[in-house]
Amino acid sequence: MKPTFTLQAALLTVLLFLLGQGARAQTYDAVVALDGSGAYRSVQAAINAAPTGRTAPFTIFIKNGKYREKITVPSNRPFLQFIGESVANTVLSWNDANTPSFPGNSSSFIINASDVSALNITFENTYGDAPQGLAMYITGDRVAFKNCRFLGGQDTMQLNSQAGNRSYFKECYIDGVVDFIFGAGRGLFENCIIYPRTRRDGGSGGYITAANTQPGQPYGFVFRNCIIPENRGTTTYTLGRPWQNDLGSTATDRSATKVVWLNTTMGNSIKPAGWQLWDAGTVTSVIQYAEYKSRDFSGNLVNISQRVPWSIQLADADTANYTRAAVLGSWNPCTVVPNFCGHQDPAIAVSNFWAVKGSATALSNLTWNSSWLIAGVQYQLFRSTARRGTYTPLYTTTSAVASNINFGTTDAIPAPGTSYYYYVRASKSGLATHVTDTLEISSTPTIFTTGTLQAFLQGGATPSAIQNLLVRAENLTAAVTVTPPAGYEVSANGGTTWFGSAAPLTLVPGSTGGVASTTLSVRLNAGSVGPYAGNLTLASAGAAAVSIPLAGQKQAAALPQSVVLQWWPMARSNQDSTAVRAAALQASTPTLRKFVVSNGSATATIPPYSRTYGQAFAPVADGAWTTALGGNGGNLNRTYYEQFTVGSNSSAVRLDSLVFNAYVTGSVSNTKLAVVWSRSGFATDSADVTGSKGPGGILLSSANGGFTTPIFTTNASSTYRLAFAGATGLTLAAGQRLTFRVYFSCGSTTVTTRFATLKNVQVKGEANVVSSTRGAAVQALQLYPNPATAQCLITHPAASREARIAVYSSLGQRVATVACVAGSQQTALNLNALVAGYYVVRYISEAGQFAVPLHKE
Question: What is the mean pLDDT of residues 648-668?
């Protein structure tokens, strides 16, 4: 039967046509399109091409597509306006997080300019529930959004503005799991969907806001006529907790947090208490947490009998203080574009489409939610056995009630060796259909490797240094065979057992067909001198083989040895260890400039020296860094440093690297670290370190410890290894000195308890090296590898019957003793009984005693 063509339908068709023609007639200053149909293929390219210093909007139209890029609007480009083709399909996406692998600002989109606006765009950070991974970071004033989505996990959005800077959100969708709207700025949210979604990481609780409103500011976050939908029921939330109002705060830096919810509709995902302290040090008298007529989805007032007693229920007259004009002052965001503050009918937009693979006894789970509350939307889940194959409907449901935004179903896992591909199609007559990205649940055997390998160098009979890869696998039906090329060996237990090309290593999968992440150690241990090249292969039945090229060289001469020559434990004082210091070096005590060690007070909480932190210091003795208190804040400064000196006595010394543990306690806000060295005491020369390794491996050249390319430290004590002058190092002749300075910065505004820490500072190299007047002498005691995990090999003078190896903790306690075999020059030391940390290994015999530090990882 043909459809009946009514006058109403004809008018609707004409109206839609005219609207479409009007949209096409709209002109923009720049157009971005992934397919090349615009002037730019990336959003950042359009921003970079925009003029600076504008006083009227510069419009950037972004066509549908997923733009995977990290984007920054610099402070000199105000009045940029971003307009998406559709909120569901114009997606600006990135996946940074606050981890050692991604130091610095983790946000996908950073706005440092003022008078910036965005319409019909999705901003997302796909890293996951934790750690911190921002979708939006704002420092500018007068920043406005309409009909936008912000998708993330922990800390989705930060309004990190200067005091009084303002942001406005109209009919937006914001989701997350922990503190997902946070910061010191002033934010007004009108008619927004605030979705505290079910956590995927197993956590049972979360917090919507974490404002740190600064003292004296009249407003923090204000939510007017917003909706907090219910999630799937396994994660409950509070409306907020007060960031920077905690045990580490003082009267001068404690946040006076302000968050107000007016006419909010909320479900049972909000805890009856409503709000939460940060910790036992929270001062509630300076906090303003308030609600006005919060209602449930039946329209009834929420039961507030269990709200925390220090929260506020506003009266009718109080609401006059929270109008748009009152909160935003002289700025009227309604003038950004016509009808910016008016109502716009919501679009269909599916969020959080997620597929979790089941097992042989449990079904896979496929879940999603609607971004806005729209009744009558049909959701169809489609499945195919090939990504570009034929998809058929697996599940269909319709949202009968607008407030029900959570949907999902289950499916059996695919057969071994196959995959299932899924997408969701959401549609309703009169609205644009949204089709999600395609997700895969795989039963195809797959081998994964992480890491890169540099060239190997073996000298004499000693194997090369070990390099590591991470290996994991899933959906296996057989073991993974790891075959190195000729001359190379691999180990999966930290070097206790080695396998070569004739007898490869096998990694046996568990009962679920997976191999958990395993560290694969690789070394060159060839018999003949010459080059060695080939592929390290990892293979399993039905899986695509992985081949990793290896290259290396064996030379006849032994390699130069790198041992610890001088060690500052920093556990009790800043004196270097006399037991470890090479005879060729002078005793040395570091000095601080514009830094002071912690005073150890109750306010500081951290002692000046300890086994936990090592040496703790800051510009102010109780841990403050702000420039107002005389600190250098978040920027490195050439006058804030700790200086160390390595001086040679009567023989030449080769220095190659510096090793230490460091971080800034309680902060990762611009916590930078750099090292610079000099031969003249910085009178006539200085040089940056040339490369480094951190907790995540080799650091990028953009953050490798040079003064202009500093390391961004993590939030835990981490080991850093920095090369002084490349692979060859540098040589100090008798009587010469090397001076190096360690610089720190911290951008936290907290006045106390932020301390730079240094622990186990070690200078490595080789003493008694060849000079113009004398030959080389063999080091008395050497460890390999160092750092070590399960076992290390100690090379020492030929042992007498009474010779033994003793291991001491950093505080001098003997923790292990091993007898040496008479006549031997090597002794194996099993480290499995030792906890991770630093030790002194001492060789004791009638001929004398020798000591060297050991790092157990």
Answer: 91
| Catalytic site includes residue 96 | no
310 and 374 share a domain? no
- Whole-number pLDDT of residue 71: 95
Task: Give the residue-averaged pLDDT of 461-487.
Answer: 92
Question: Which of 446-460, 605-619, 749-763 bottoms out in mean pLDDT, i.e. has the lowest?
Answer: 446-460
Instruction: Find, among 469, 470, 525, 520, the residue nearest to 494 by Cα.
Output: 520
Give the angle subtended at the CA of 306 by the CAs of 300 and 309, to the nearest 5°: 120
Model confidence pTM above 0.70: no
Angle at 674 between CA 672 and CA 676, to 5 degrees: 165
How wide is the angle at C-alpha 222 spanned by C-alphas 218 and 223, nearest 5°?
A: 170
Specify whether 576 is catalytic.
no
* CATH number of the domain to which 610 belongs: 2.60.120
Task: Dump pLDDT digits (tens) for 262-311.
Answer: 999 999 999 999 999 999 899 999 999 999 999 999 999 999 999 999 99
Report which of 220, 127, 233, 148 is spatially closest to residue 181, judged by C-alpha positions: 220
Number of domains in the chain: 5
The DSSP string of 315-339 is -GGGGGGGSHHHHHTT--GGGSSTT
Q: What is the structure's pLDDT at 162?
A: 62
540 and 416 Cβ atoms separated by less than 8 Å = no
115 and 142 Cβ atoms separated by less than 8 Å: yes
Q: What angle do CA 52, 53, 55 make, to 5 degrees?
A: 125
In this prediction, residue 626 carries a pLDDT of: 85
For 553, 722, 725, the CA distances from 729, given in Å and listed in that order, are: 20, 11, 5
**Domain final residue pick, 555, 576, 601:** 555
CA gap 371, 388 in Å, rounded? 27
Q: What's the DSSP call for residue 561?
A: P
Question: Could you give phi then psi for residue 45, rounded to 5 degrees?
Answer: -65, -40
pLDDT digits (tens, 9 = 90+) for 501-555: 999 999 999 987 889 999 899 999 999 999 999 999 999 998 999 999 999 999 8
- The sheet with strand 782-784 has its strands ordered as 782-784, 791-795, 826-830
Q: Same domain for 792 and 693? A: no
At residue 690 the predicted structure's pLDDT band, cuts being 50, 70 and 90, is confident
Considering the domain architecture, whether residues 627 and 692 belong to the same structural domain is answered as yes
% of the chain with per-residue pLDDT over 70: 93
Q: What is the pLDDT of residue 584?
A: 87
Q: Give the span between the Cα atoms of 342 and 92, in whole angstroms.
A: 25
Q: Which of 442, 470, 489 is the last residue of a domain?
A: 442
**Residue 18 falls within a domain, yes or no?**
no
The angle at the Cα of 599, spanning 596 to 604, to the nearest 5 degrees, equals 110
How does pLDDT run across 46-72, given as a tens digit for each residue? 999 999 999 999 999 999 999 999 999
Q: Residue range 765-789: average pLDDT?
A: 60
Range of the domain at 507: 448-555
Q: Tell me the one-letter amino acid at 123.
A: F
The one catalytic residue in 96, 175, 179, 411 is: 179
Q: Which of 115, 155, 253, 656 is the catalytic position?
A: 155
pLDDT at residue 26 greater than cutoff 80:
no
Burial pattern 455-490, b for ≥16 Cβ within 10 A else e, equals: ebebbeeebbebbebebbbbbbeebbebbbbebbbb
**Listed residue (149, 290, 284, 283) closest to 209, CA to CA:** 290
111 lies in some domain: yes
Residues in the chain: 857
Strands 614-618 and 756-767: antiparallel
User: What does 389-408 look like in DSSP terms, one character per residue?
Assistant: S--EEEEEEE-SSTT--EEE
Task: List all residues 6 or more positions away from 98 whose beta carbon is below 8 Å from its beta carbon.
Answer: 106, 131, 132, 133, 668, 715
The candidate with the shortest Cα–Cα distance to 732, out of 766, 699, 774, 701, is: 766
Q: Is 702 helix (H, G, I), strand (E, B) or coil?
A: helix
